[in-house]
Amino acid sequence: MTKFITFEGVDGAGKSTHLAWFADALRCRGMDVIVTREPGGTKLGEQLREMVLNQSMSIGAEAMLMFAARLEHVEQVIQPALQSGKWVISDRFSDASFAYQGSGRGMDWEKLKQLEQWVELQPDLTLFFDVPVEVARQRLSNNVSLDRFEQEQGEFFERVRAGYHRRVAENPQRFVVIDAAQTLDAVKLQLAAIIEAI
Ligand code: TMP
């Protein structure tokens, strides 16, 4: 049964805008839903988020901090919620580490797979909000302050997007690709169809 759902996409794809609506739509159908995010979701995770988004560090340290935050998140929040019958929607999860630290920063995919083994848990369903990088950059241009990732150049995000496509190809059974270049209403229609299906 689908209970652990993750939202993924390059910065500016618009996934966070749709997440609250998606969670409410599930609640209207009687599901008990919690919404959480990565990096973050726990006290330690939020402290690590503050660090990785703002402080420069080696690629390996960045990847390990992402997974350290994830392990804490899974153990403290996600698993207990799933075990008590709740649905969990997370704004990003392990796929982001493959896309950003793997493809974006060039960290060895196999090393990331080793870190992923610590986490064990996989989402039942992942919605990948796919959008051309120039559209995502345009959407981000209204933000007043940009974090360490958002400040990266277009080529970085092209690699991140390609990394997501690689994850989709490697895990076709759990991914649904959303065309996020469309209008908000058109994206909502795509999400409504997914909600009906699950
Ligand atoms: P957010 O802006 O969607 O909240 O995500 C924060 C940033 O962290 C975003 O630029 C992507 C990045 N990130 C990684 O680089 N690796 C990861 O594993 C996760 C979860 C996020």
Which short descriptors sum up this protein?
14% strand; 198 residues; alpha/beta; five-stranded parallel beta sheet; binds thymidine-5'-phosphate; globular
Produce a short descriptive summary:
With 198 residues, this protein is α/β, with parallel strands linked by helices. It contains eight helices and five strands, in the order βαβααβααβααβα.
What can you see in these coordinates?
Helix 1 crosses helix 8, helix 2 runs antiparallel to helix 3 and helix 3 packs parallel to helix 5. The protein has 198 residues and is α/β, with parallel strands linked by helices. The relative contact order is 0.20. It has a 5-stranded parallel β-sheet with strand order 2-3-1-4-5, sandwiched between helices. The structure holds thymidine-5'-phosphate (TMP). The site of thymidine-5'-phosphate has 12 residues, from helix 4.
